[in-house]
Amino acid sequence: EEYVGSTQGVFQFELSGDGGGTWYIDLKTKGGSAGFGKPPVTADVVMSMSSADFVKMFT
To answer: Cα 56 vs. chain centroid, distance in angstroms?
Structure first.
């Protein structure tokens, strides 16, 4: 809840390569959510990158 309240954004990731696809993190809707596919609401930010770059970015 703390991150949802302070972030207020929906992020969509378009990943290519192994494990790729469309993923999202919703830090705007109460309770927040994350999953595979397009977010249930319009994304505020869409990032396109390889799955390898995504792993480097978040680890």
So the answer is: 15
- The answer to whether residues 7 and 41 touch, using CB atoms and an 8 Å cutoff, is no
Q: What is the pLDDT of residues 1-59, one digit of tens each?
A: 776 778 889 999 999 999 899 999 999 988 889 999 999 999 999 999 999 999 999 89
Q: What is the pTM of this model?
A: 0.85
Please state which CATH number belongs to domain 2-50: 3.30.1050.10
**Could you give the CA distance from residue 21 to residue 41 in angstroms, rounded to a whole number?**
18
Q: How many CB atoms lie within 10 A of CB 12?
A: 19
Place of tokens 């609401």: 41
Domain ranges of the chain: 2-50
- Written as six digits, the tokens of 8 are 């207020």
